[in-house]
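User: Predict the structure for this protein chain, please.
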Amino acid sequence: MKNPVRTYLLLLVLIIICFFIVYNVLPIKIKYYDLINNGNKIVAELEIYYELNKKYPEEFDWEAIETIYRKTFFGDNKEFNETTQPWYNKNNDDYVLHYFSSFDGPYLFYSSKNKKWDYGVNMWE
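Assistant: Here is the predicted structure, written as structure tokens:
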């Protein structure tokens, strides 16, 4: 008679391995659904800012950026928390929103030049 504990452990290990394989091949739109939805709200507010001011906010214009983030996520009464929101970088007439998942990357980012979300290291291409 086979040992049932051994069989169940083997089955559990196979299920965990299958889960990681499936997770790694999922498209970024599914894997990072919540982050992309939150980022799209900021993108919409940045485009409204651009229509009103004919330029995107400067990278270190904390007042404008914080206003956009508050308007998008927190309303007027909630505390602003920059650690859970994407970072904003401006380069000439383009901007990039990116989430840090580790120090060296790869990063989830949105490029205003390409108008799409991507996952990688080089955000300015």
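The chain has one domain: 26-120.
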